[in-house]
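Sample pair:
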Amino acid sequence: MQLKPALRFPGRPRGWFLSLLFHAMATVSAGFAADTSFISDYSETRGFQLGRPVAPQITPDGQSVLFLRAAGPRTAKQSVFEFDVASGRTRELLTAEQVLGAGDEQLSPEEKARRERARISVGGFTSLQLSKDGTQILAPLAGRLFLIERATAKARELPLAGTVLDPRFSPDGRQLAFVRDFDLWTFDLATNRERRLTKGGSEAVSHGLAEFVAQEEMGRFAGYWWSPDSKSLLYQESDAREVEVWHLADPFKPDRTPSPQFYPRPGKANVKVRLGIISAKGGRTRWLSWEAAKHPYFTHADWHAAGGLTVTVQTRDQREVVLLRVNPKTGVTTPLLTERDPVWVNLDQKFPQWLQDGSGFLWTTERNGGWELELRGADGAFRETLVAKEAHWHSLVHASDDAKTIHFLAQPTPVERQLCRRNPDGSVTPLTRELGVVSAVFGGKPAVYALTQDTPAALAQTTIHRADGTRLGELPSVAEAPSLATRTELAKVGPRAGFQVRITRPRNFDPARKYPVLVDVYGGPHAQVVQAAQRGWLLPQWLADQGFIVVAADNRGTPGRGREWEREIFGQFGSVPVEDQVAALRALGAKHPELDLDRVGITGWSFGGYMGALGVLRRADVFKAGVAGAPVTDWFDYDTHYTERYLGVPGEGDPVYPANSLLKDAAGLSRPLLLIHGTADDNVFFRHSLKLADALTRAGKPFEFVPLGGFTHMVPEPAMAEQRWVRTVEFFRRHLGEPK
C-alpha cells in the first residue's frame, strides 16, 4: 500500500486516504498473477524438508541411530525413530499423537522463546537426549517430559508439574536436572523425587538459564553443567535488573498483555552473569571469581573428567577471549590461554575439547589469518598445529581420545563443505568429494557416523558409515521431491579476490531476450547464500520462473574466505556490503548480456532486509526497486553482542551507528520500496520497520508496507509464507516489468 502523509492531500474528505490504501492493496497485481503451484507446495512442505531425518544421534555401542522425523511430507510434527545399523530397519518409538491425541501443543512463553532462538518452527518432538549407557531417551514435548526405554519402546511421562526447561541427564543416568520457575532443580529417576537446588529465581534474576544474547548470538543454550561424577552442578545466575525492559505489544493481538523482555541495546547495560557450583543435593553455592568487570561475557563452560572444569569469558568489545581453569573447591580461576584480535574474536562453542587423559586440549584460532586447529597442553601452552589453514578448516566433527585422528568439515571452496580426516601422520584425507554441503555426527564404539549431504542434484540425504567411510545404510525419508528442476550455476566474478555468485535463469530462458534482475541478498556476517546445495536454489528458481534472472553474491564480511575478508565489514554495514553487491552485479552484467542492469531489484530478510532497503536508499542508480523483510533500520535498536562486535561499543556522540542507520537516508528515497515485517518479532522488533515508515512518511516518500499479523522473525505458516513471496513477485513485476 502506498503511504503518503495526509497533509499532502488538502481538501480530501476524511477516510479518503485509507480508502486509497485498501484499494491499492486490492489492486497491486493488475494484469499479472504469479504462478503459485510450486510456492504453495514449497510452503506446505517447509521447503521440501518435512519428512527428512534430522538430529541423528548414535548409540554408545554403534549399533543404532536415533533421529527425529515428521511422519509425512506435509506434517509439521516430529516423532522419535530408531535405525538399526545391522538390519537397516527403522522403527517408530514415540509420536506426538500418541501423547497428545488430536490436541495441539500448548507451549509456555519461555519454551516459545527458546524455540525462536533456536529457529525451530516444527512441532512434536524437537529434541532428544540419549543416556550415557544408551538405554534411555529423554524427550520433551509441549512442556512435558517423557522417558523412553529403547529396548521396549515404552515411554513414561515423568511427574513434573509446571514448565520444565532444558532437562538433561546426569552423567551416571540416575538423575535429571532442569529449570523451572527460574530456578535449578534435580529429579531422581528411581524415586521420582524432585529437589530444588536454588531459590529466589525470577524473570529478573534467573538460575540455570542462558541469557538472551547467549542464545541468540553466542550459540550457547545451556545455563548449567553437570560435574562428571554427577555430584555437583555449575550454573549461571543472570541478573537483568539493570537491563532495559522492552514490551512486546503485538498490535495484531491487542487483547493480550504486552510481554516484557530484557533487551540489551548497544552502549547500554547487559545482563550480569555470575557462575556458581552447588551440590546435586542442594546447599550453599560456591561462586567463581574472575575479572568480570574486564570480561563481562561468559561464553562457554566445559567440565571434563580428566581435564577438569574450564570456563571461557570475553571482553565487552569482544577483542579478547580468556580460557580459565576453575578450582571447583574454591571457585578460584586461573587463565590457561588468551585469544586476541584487533577487530573481534569469533567464538567456537565446541572448544576446548579435552583429550581423554586430560594431558591437553584442542583449540581453534584465526590468529594466522584463517581457521586452524591447535593442540594445547594441560597448562594451555601451545604444542602443535594439527590442522593448518591450508586445509580450509570449518568445524570439528569428532576427535579420537588421543586426538591422533580427527574428523572435520572443510571448505575447499567457499561454496561447499566436505568431510575430511586428519590422519595420525598429519596428512589430510577427504572422505567426501561430490560438490555439495555436508554435515556429520560421530558416535559409538566401534565408531560410525551419520553423513548428511545436500548437493546441487538432490536435497538432504542422511547415510550411515563406518569410520573408514564404508556405507552401511540410509536413514529413511518420506519427504516429497521438489516439483521443479533448478537451472542454477555457480561462478566467481569481479575485481580483486572476486565474489562467489549464484545465477538462476527461468526454465524457459530465451537467450535472445533481456531479463529484469533480482538480487537475492543476505550480506551480513556468519551467513552465506551462495552454496552448492539445492536447498537454497528452489525459491530463486520459482522467482526466476516468474520472468526474472535471480542472482546472489557473498560480499566481504561473509564467512569462508579467511579472517581479513570477514573483518572488512567492521564499522561499515552501510557501505562495504552494498558496494560489493554492486561490483558483483556489474561483473555479471558484463559477462551475461541477458541481464538487464537497467531493471534491477533487491530483496532479503533480516540483515538481507536491511540490505534490501539500503540498496534503494543509497544506490538508487543501480537498484530500481527493493523488498526489505524484517530489516534492522537503526542499529541502536539491535542487541549488544551482535551489534557491538561489528560496529563497536558506542560512546556519546558516536558517528558509526548513525552512519549505518537507514533512517537518515529516508528523505532521499526515490525508488519503490516494500517493507514486510512480523508484528510479534522479538529479534528484529516490528519497531524497526515502523521507525523507517515514520521517517519516510514524514519526508513525504511513498512506499508499501505489509505487516504480518502475529508473526515473529520466522514465518512458518504455509499460507502466509506463500503470500509473502507472491506479494514480492507482484511488486517486482509492477516496477521492473517483463523480459524484453
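The radius of gyration is 26 Å.
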